[in-house]
Design brief:
The protein is α+β, with helices and mostly antiparallel strands and 274 residues long. It has eleven helices and eight strands.
């Protein structure tokens, strides 16, 4: 799926809406309040020097909020975001990207929404220009070399076990929108206690702060994906979990570049290969 830089959904840039929906995992849901905060962040991001997401919310909800210099501007953006959230939800429902999660809505007595198959497809949409096949070939070759480095370099605490190529490139498009790849990783250290110790050491050595519960365990995995992608817009990396769960159209095709082909085939429900 392609989107354009100027495309809007309910008055909000489609790229921004896509980025927000990328934060919604396949098995999770969200409510209007959460969406309003995400819209607020889209509106205010980069407007003030040294602004962080935490600051933007603090300027609104702190008991001393009115004493902050940027409070009036933040309040205006917040009020606009509260108005925009229900409009965006209605539009996303109409376009088939989200639907009401009746079970969770009944449990919490608040409307909650989840992604549809079209919504998960939109979450992977790109605004990048189509690439030439030669450039795509070079990008894939470079990625596979980085897979080798990840698996051999002890700096990385995860190894790559699976690389699956799919999408328009596999179907033979001369100018694919991008190169879709599903990646799966596993811990290099099997012992749970030793792995946790290695994660904490890795975090401390990196000089980063522990931003949230579990961050020390997410960081090594995220680093693998960042290293594999190398900020190349040609590559669109996804988890193997998302690849297996995505809706499969009639022209669906894929190629296992690295990993167990039979295992992937079984996960997709295909007849076992001999």
């Amino acid at each position: 799926m392609r989107i354009t830089k100027n495309q809007k959904i309910a008055g909000i840039a489609a790229i921004g809406v896509r980025n927000v929906l990328q934060k919604v995992y396949n098995d999770s849901s969200f409510n209007e309040q959460w969406l309003a905060e995400e819209i607020y962040w889209l509106r205010i991001k980069g407007q003030f020097e040294y602004t962080t997401r935490r600051d933007c919310l603090l300027w609104l909800h702190s008991k001393d909020a009115k004493s902050y210099t940027h409070y009036p501007a933040c309040r205006r953006h917040w009020n606009a975001s509260l108005r925009a959230a229900p409009q965006l939800i209605e539009t996303l429902i109409q376009q088939g990207f989200i639907k009401l999660n009746e079970k969770k809505a009944n449990e919490r007595k608040l409307p909650r929404y989840e992604l549809t198959d079209d919504g998960r497809e939109f979450r992977r949409a790109t605004a990048a220009k189509p690439v030439h096949r030669k450039k795509a070939d070079e990008a894939i070759k470079g990625l596979m070399e980085r897979v080798r480095i990840v698996n051999e370099d002890d700096f990385f605490l995860y190894r790559v076990t699976t690389v699956v190529l799919y999408g328009s490139y596999v179907r033979g498009a001369e100018r694919p929108a991008d190169v879709d790849l599903a990646i799966d990783v596993e811990r290099k250290i099997c012992d749970v206690k030793k792995f946790h110790e290695a994660c904490w050491k890795h975090l401390n050595d990196s000089g980063r702060e522990c931003r949230r519960i579990g961050y020390e365990f997410d960081l090594p995995r995220d680093e693998v994906f960042v290293f594999l992608r190398q900020r190349k817009r040609t590559l669109s990396l996804h988890t193997l979990h998302d690849f297996i769960g995505m809706e499969k159209h009639e022209n669906f095709s894929y190629e296992v570049l690295f990993g167990d082909k039979n295992a992937i085939s079984q996960m997709l429900g295909e007849p076992q290969r001999v």
